[in-house]
Amino acid sequence: MKNELLQDLLSQMSLEEKIGQLVQLPASFLSEGNLTGPALEMGLSRQDIRLAGSVLSVIGAEKICRIQKEYMENHPHHIPLLFMADIINGYRTVFPIPLAQGCSFDPGLAEKCAAIAAEEAAASGIHVTFSPMADLSRDPRWGRVMEGTGEDPCLNRRMAAALVRGYQGEESGPIGPGRLASCLKHFAGYGAPVAGRDYNTVELSPRTLREDYLPAYQGAVDAGCALVMTSFNTLDRIPSAANRWLLQDILRREMGFDGVIISDWAALHEMLAHGIASDHAEAALKAITAGVDIDMASPVYCRHLKELVEKGLVPVSLIDEAALRVLQLKNRLGLFENPFKDADTAAEKEKLLSPAHRAAARECAEKTFVLLKNEDALLPIHPDTSIACIGPYVDNRLLDGSWSFFADDQDTATLREALTQAGCRASFAPGCSLLDPGTPLIAFQKKVSPDTMDSEQALQEALALARRSEKVILALGEPRDFSGEAASRADLSLPDCQLDLLRQISAVNPQVIVLLFCGRPLDLRPVQKYAKAILLAWMPGTEGAHALADILTGRAAPSGRLAMSFPRGVGQVPVHYAHLNTGRPFHGDYRTERFFSKYLDIPNDPLYPFGFGLTYTRFAYSPVVLDRTEMKKDETLHASVTLTNTGTRAGTETVQLYIRDVSASVARPVRELKDFRKVTLNPGESREVTFAVSESQLRFYTLDMHFASEPGAFEIFIGSDSTAQNCASFRLTE
Length: 734
Ligand code: GLC
What we know:
Elements: H1 3-12, H2 15-20, E1 23-26, H3 37-41, H4 46-51, E2 54-56, H5 61-74, E3 82-85, H6 98-102, H7 107-123, E4 128-129, H8 153-168, E5 181-187, H9 206-222, E6 227-230, E7 234-235, E8 238-239, H10 244-254, E9 260-262, H11 271-274, H12 280-290, E10 295-296, H13 300-310, H14 316-332, H15 345-351, H16 355-366, E11 370-374, E12 386-390, H17 415-421, E13 425-429, H18 442-447, H19 455-467, E14 471-477, H20 496-508, E15 512-517, H21 525-530, E16 533-536, H22 544-552, E17 619-621, E18 625-626, E19 630-631, E20 636-645, E21 651-661, E22 672-681, E23 686-694, E24 700-701, E25 707-708, E26 712-719, E27 727-732
Helix pairs in contact: 1-14, 7-8, 7-16, 8-9, 12-13, 16-22, 17-22, 19-20
Bound molecules: alpha-D-glucopyranose.
C-alpha cells in the first residue's frame, strides 16, 4: 500500500483503534476467542484484544493463518496483526548461540545463519524477530552474555549489522519473501548491570555508553533494523522506556532510527517497581512521551492512553505518529496486500530442518569452537585411537542454548551418537551428573531430570574406562538453563562433581581432552591444570555434536577466536582487553610488587584473552610494515604483515588489527580492535595481509564530547589475539 494511503487509513481510525495498534499481546491471551486468566488479570476486555496490533510467541503457519483471518474479519478496518517472536539463534534449525557465532569472527556466516532462521520462521508465519541482541557485555556473571556477540564494539557492530541483513535483506526496502523484520535489542546498555545481576541498575558515563555500547546498536540501525526494543534497566537512574533523552535525542535524532520502538516485556508496568510512576496512568504518560510505540504484554497503554488524550495530557499527535509507524511496519512487510506473508504449511515441511539448513548449522558450529589448549598435539584424534568419552554431556541433547524454545531437542544428536556415527573407537560413561547431586534449580529440573545415577558407581565405571583407553574426552559444562535471561551467577566455577571427575580421571590417564559446553566464560583454572587439551564448544546447536566430531577427528580444524575474555576467576570481573592504562599500569609479578593497579593473589590478565584461539597448525607473522609513518586526516595508511603457515596442516587464522591512541584529550584504551581478516593457508604457504586504516577509525569522544580524531602518536598491533606485540607506530598530523 502506498504510504499516503496509510494516512487515509489512519484518518478513518478512532482513537481507540489507533491505541489498539500500540498494544502487543502475549500468546497466552489468544486462547481461541475467549479471555484467558492473564488477560482478565490485566483487566483487558474482549474489545482490547480485538483491536490489538500485534502478538508475540505465536508460531505455526496453520495457527497463524487461522488467527489472522479471524482477527481481520473482526477488526473494524481489517488491519492485519503482526506476529513477533524471539528467533535468536535459529528457529527449528538451531545454530550456535550468538556468543559462539561472535567467536567465528565471520559476519558473513552469521548473516547466512540469520537468513536461514528467517526463511524457516517466515514459513511458520512469523513477521518479526526480537533479534539481534546487540548488548555489549564484559561481565560473565550476567547470563545473557550468551545472547550477544561479546566484549568488543568493532566485532559487535559488524555482527549486529550482519544479523539484520540476514533477517531483513536489503537495508531500507520492503521486507520480502522469506525475510523477517529485525528488532534490535535491548536499548540501551543492558549488558552492563551492576554486579552482573540481570535487570539491575546500569551506571555508565555518557562517554562510555557512546564509545563502547552504542556502536553495535548503530550497526543494526545503519543496516535498517525495523524495530528497537527498550531495555529493562535504568540508565542514569531512568528506565529506558521512560528515557526521552535516550529514545529521542540519541536513538532517533543522533543515530537516525525511524522505525518502531517497542518496550520489553511489561517494562511499562515495571516503572512502578522502579519507583518512577505511581500508577499505570503515569507510566503510560512517561512512555508515550519518551517515544515508546508498542507496549509489550502490559495493560498500560490500552487502559490509560485514551483517558490521557481526552484529558489533554497527551497530544493525539503522539498517538497518530506511533500508530502510523506500526502501520508503516506492516506495510513494509507487505501485510496489507498479503496478511499471511510466507505462512505456508507445505513450505514449513520442506524448509524446517532441511538437509541444507542442517549442513549450514554444522558449518557454523565448526567455525565457532575455540581451541584453548592442545598440549602434545593431543588433538586431532587418529581414527585408530581408543577413546574414553566421559562426562555429563555425553548423552545430553540440550545443546541449543536457552533461547531455542521453538526447536525440538530430539532433533539434536548427542556426543555419543555423533562420535559413533563418525566411526570413532569410543566407549562412553557419564561419570557424574551435570550438577552437584541435589543442586536445586527449578527451571533445570523442569527440563532435565537430574541424573539419578549412583555417583560412586558411575565414577568407578568412568575411571575403569579411562584406564583402558589411550585418550579421554571429558565432556563437561554448565546446564543450558544456567545461562540466558534471569540466569546470573556469582560463581563461575564448574560444578564440584565435574571438577572431582576431572581430577580423578587425569590421575589415571593424563591424556585428557576437555570439551566445554557453556553459555558464558567460566573459571577454567582447574581445567587448564588437569587437561592437556581444551575445546570450547559453547552451546553449539542442532548439529553441534556432529561438528565436534569433525573437529575432534581432524576432518575440520578449529578456527574460532574468543569474542569475550575468560577470567581467572569471578574476582577479576569485569576483565577485558580494551581497558584504560590507569596511572599505575602493572606488567610485573603480582607476588612481589606493590603500589600498582594489581591484585595480591592473581595476575591482572585473563586466563584466555579476547581474540585468542589455537588451531591444528601454527602461523608466523612478519613485523608490521606501514606505507607511511605520518598520516594526514584525508589520507589512508596501509599496514601489512606477511602471514606464514609454519605447520603441517592447513589452517585458518583470524588476523586482528588493534590501534592504540597513545595520548589524547581523554584516557584511551590500551588497544582497540579496528579490523580483522580470516586467512586460510596451506602448510608452508605465505600471504601478505594488508589493512587500510583511515582517520575515521581513529575518532573517539574527545574531552568536549565531539566525535573526532586528534593529531598525535598511534601504535598499530597486528597479530593473532589482543595481546599481540607485533607493533609499528605512526603519527596523525593535522
Ligand atoms: C524477554 C526478553 C526479551 C524478549 C522479550 C519477549 O523478557 O528480555 O529479550 O525479546 O521478553 O520474549
